[in-house]
Amino acid sequence: MQVKNPILGLCQKAQFALSAAKVEQCPDDQGYEVAFAGRSNAGKSSALNTLTHASLARTSKTPGRTQLLNFFSLDDERRLVDLPGYGYAKVPIPLKQHWQKHLEAYLGSRECLRGIILMMDVRHPMTDFDKMMLDWSKASRMPMHILLTKADKLTHGAAKNTLLKVQSEIRKGWGDGVTIQLFSAPKRLGVEDAYRVLAGWMELEDKPAV
Asked: Among positive and negative, which fits the CA dihedral 25, 17, 204, 167?
């Protein structure tokens, strides 16, 4: 009997809820939230749109467009959160400082946050921002799953080698608590694996398809 991942139906119904410039403007701190993080231009918005089958997150060839905490409702108690992209040089320093301050406040205060999906460009993984997020995840014991995005930009062999290399580096530096996979939004590579992670964090069990 075919098993249907229940997160799929919820993601297809995802709707924009609100944008917040500060933690005080976020939805009530209850239910289940999964946050999508990544250095600017790591493919974060594209991944979010692919997983929700919609153009929810704003994509742009100009990095640094996501400047707010953007919340998308899956149902009455489950949400996805698009966090501000970080690290783009052309963003004014005061704005960078604002993002960092409120990003840290969000990550450190949300009781309903169940995990972080961290996007890394498979061609440029393990940036300083990535390592900072890994450090925070380990210190706070927050589950983290990494999507090595833009895997279609490399050959299958090169992408696989990068996956194994980054996997090894993470195990040595941050232990076994972080999971990782290859992902491509245009090719829909790795979508099912990402859904399984989301379903687990949001406490949704797989159900037989009708």
From this structure: negative
Domain residues for 13? 3-74+86-111+127-146+167-205
Identify the CATH number of the domain in which residue 179 sits.
Answer: 3.40.50.300
Q: Which residues make beta-bridge pairs with 82? A: 36, 70
Residue 154 burial (CB count, 10 A): 17
Cβ–Cβ < 8 Å for 83, 115: no
Q: Using one digit for the tens of pLDDT, what is the confidence trace for 104-158?
A: 889 899 999 999 999 999 999 999 889 989 999 999 999 999 999 999 999 999 9
Structural domain includes residue 182:
yes
Q: How much is the pTM?
A: 0.88
The domain total for the chain is 1
pLDDT score of 36: 95
pLDDT over 90 at 5, yes or no: no
Q: Which residue has the tokens 């995802």?
A: 14
Residue 140 maps to a domain: yes
The single-letter DSSP state of residue 83 is P
Residue 153 lies inside a defined structural domain of this protein: no
